[in-house]
Amino acid sequence: MGPSEANGDLSGARRVVRVLDSLSVLIDGSTRRQMGNAAKETVFKQWKLEVSHVLPRRADEHALGDEHDVDPDAQFPTPVLLIPPLMVRPYVYDLRPNHSFVRHLRDKGYRTYVLDFGVPDAHDETLTLDHYVYTFLPAAIDAVCRHAGSSKVSLVGYCMGGIFGLLYTAALDQRAGGEGSRTANLVTIGAPINFEKLGVISWAARFGQGFVDQLMDRLGNVPSLGAELGFKVMSGSKALTKWVDLANNLYDEEYVRGFDAVNTWVNDLLPYPREAFKQMVKDVVGQNKLLRRELELGGRRIDLSVIDAPLLALAGRSDNIATLGSTRAVLATVGSEDKTFVEVPGGHVGVVAGSSAPSAVWQRVSDWLAPRSLR
User: Fold this and answer.
1) Residue 22 in domain
2) What is the DSSP string of 128-140?
3) pLDDT value at position 254?
4) Model pLDDT, residue 16
5) Contact by Cβ (8 Å): 82, 159
6) Which region, left, alpha or beta, applies to residue 287 given φ > 0 means left and ψ of -120 to 50 means alpha?
7) At what angle do helices 253-266 and 224-234 cross, to 10 degrees?
8) Mean pLDDT, rounded, for 288-304
9) Residue 19 forms part of a structural domain
10) Who is most buried in 155, 294, 303, 338, counting CB within 10 A?
11) What is the pLDDT of residue 8?
12) How large is the average pLDDT for residues 156-179?
């Protein structure tokens, strides 16, 4: 046997070992045990609402990418609050130690906080969007400001989390006699505004307006299984081709760990509160009231044009849930002078959690926030 043949056999043997290592990752769930495990402290807990502060990096913990140690005294004065969508657990921002949005922000010098709305149950069927915008978000944001010693906070939200940031800011800014919102900056990731541009979702919502009340009154909260199924259907062929991609990359343990993390959270969605779901189907999606400035929360119409906080909106080029057309509409809707819309690689999952997210999304967010977080 010649040297080249020997090297070929060795390479093949190594590939087999790597495949076996990858299979063990999928079987033993080691990646899943690391999800959402960035060191945190709870700074606020009320109802099911919880706000956690991401602690500084430990001495034995490696930084992500080329980040360096951050002097606590040199941190940006404006804290960052990550808002998850309904149905999605907040560990979407912290999928694994070397692929974590919260650790990226922490290592870039931001006081980083994560919001958790909790897991809805039968007692939460009557929760509406009004509760989230006028009760939960203000309580969480006030807690962040108190803990960080800041009068303002940058809000970063994925999908519905981004919409919550917009709703909160508009609702508090236009509240008569109020002090306005505490929003310093707004970042939305894959957050639709023009729901007529959502294709089949728009059609389904318009079709379902007539019977959604009766259906939901019988069903209660939207079960997590229904949310997971809907998510997979909207993912189209990707729901099937991802398994082919996994088979082709079994020799790459890092790819497998990423696949396992994303696949876990997509199959670990939460129930959707009944009354909030009705509002989304009928008012927000079906009649597109948010874009038309006709959405009423707390007896007041929400007008996004009153928002003047700096805005960064990111959207995935291949996102067939929050399409480019639906997300780009935010530019013409908010009143901010400082506003930027950026197309980035990825679909609805990849835009926040995919392999290109660290460079295309996380780094862009931290760079954009930096000069706007000094006040």
Assistant:
1) no
2) -HHHIIIIIHHHH
3) 65
4) 56
5) no
6) alpha
7) 130
8) 94
9) no
10) 155
11) 47
12) 86
The CATH number assigned to the domain holding 76 equals: 3.40.50.1820
Instruction: Report the candidate in 157, 58, 165 with the shortest Cα–Cα distance to residue 106.
Output: 58
Measured N-to-C along each axis, helices 3-28 and 253-266 cross at an angle, to the nearest 10 degrees, of: 20
Beta strands 300-301 and 296-297 are antiparallel
* Structure tokens that stand for 119 in this block: 């897991």
Tens digits of per-residue pLDDT, 108-123?
A: 999 999 999 999 999 9
Residue 16 domain flag: no
Q: What is the pTM of this model?
A: 0.85
Provide the domain limits for residue 118: 36-372
The CA distances from residue 256 to 18, 102, 350, 354, in Å, are 11, 21, 15, 12
* Structural domain count of the chain: 1
* Axis-axis angle for helices 160-173, 137-148 (nearest 10): 80
Q: Tokens in use for 20?
A: 């076996």
Q: Pairing mode, if any, of strands 49-54 and 80-83?
A: unpaired
pLDDT tens-digit series, residues 11-28: 665 655 555 555 555 555
Q: Is 326 exposed, middle or buried (0-12, 13-18, 19+ CB in 10 A)?
A: buried
Is the CB of residue 88 less than 8 Å from the CB of residue 119?
no
